[in-house]
Amino acid sequence: MDGETARGGYSGEMLAEVPALLQRVVDAGEAAGFVTLLWRDGEVVQVSAVGQRDTAAGLPMTRDTLFRIASMTKPITSAAALMLMEQGKLRLDDPITRWAPEFADMKVLKDPAGPLEAATPSPRDITIEDLLTHRAGLSYTFNSDGPIAIAYDQDLGWPLASPLTADEWMRRLGALPLLYPPGERFHYSHSTDVLGFIVERIAGRPLGETLRTMIFDPLGMKDTGFWVEPARRERHAHIYRRYPDGQVRDATYGLTPTPIPWESGGGGLISTVDDYLTFARMLLGEGEADGVRLLRPETVKLMRTNRLTEAQRQIPFFGQPIWSLMGFGLGLSCIMNAQLAAMAGAGSEGSFGWPGAFGTWWMADPVTNAILIYLVQESATDFGPGTPAADAAVAVLGGRTTLPLFQKAAYKALGL
Fold it and tell me: Which of 142, 192, 252, 283 fits as disulfide partner to 266, beta carbons 3.0 to 4.6 Å?
């Protein structure tokens, strides 16, 4: 166990419960390892690095371990789009066809699981706001059914590592019908990937380079990007998956000799706990961190404020009534019911964040001025090419089920 603790004003005994909890999960064989961080009032209160980042090589988790943060990429891409909005280069109500003509004259399926040819003209174009709030009518393979799920899989490839160029991927997605009319409902999707490629087109350079110059370099996020070059590869945490037969297998991907051309603004970034803390502090600081301002306070407020209607919040998210607890702003979820949040894990009203598919999670709490980051690498879904959505689920490891326990222990350790 590797723990770094600042004890000013905090109980060492309560702080020790956090790494002890994680260590028990590792010792039980339920997770390979974790890196977690607690920050409050300008101070890193605790960093815990527990277990191993590579079990075959016996390499331990460390504070600078590189994690695939999956959908924790989405708030970063969203922030870049809103920086362009502040520069006057886009508006929330702009139709995306202004930069993505591939999405002109879209059609909408009569039945989201029905035949692709049974579709009618979309009542309107997709807007930038639709992309930021996942109300574009797009989808992913793993949360759609029927012919559209097969078409997403065959035409677009694996969500996080497509072999296609950005332009070809956009052309293929634009040729498929929407599942729902734009604006009708929140349906988690490739929306932020499309947003990322629009950011790329507006900026006139690849998304990775755009994010680096706009966000990573100004904030000093030196370990965040879409590719891990060989010199840093030993620091990369491996992804593990447990199958129903009980076997745990290494599911690591993306360690290619050269970068792939397709950079997923919806889920492709690799980062560290300290890099992501800087980004989270920027949002908690109303657009500024360490004297560097990226966004105006009023823009950050838009990100952190729910935009879903009451009717839209009644629709389950992956079968769960998540919107009874929270809403969704521009690229971020936001807690709207603190009482339910406390029962589920932790968080004050107005707390915001967004998790990742490999078990990563973060939350910033403006009421208590705290940030929690929880990094683990395990897959509960087989995202591989050719996997029907109905067969995608596999047995989960313990990293995911430990998250609410971590949240409660962290809030207790912070005296909240």
Answer: 192
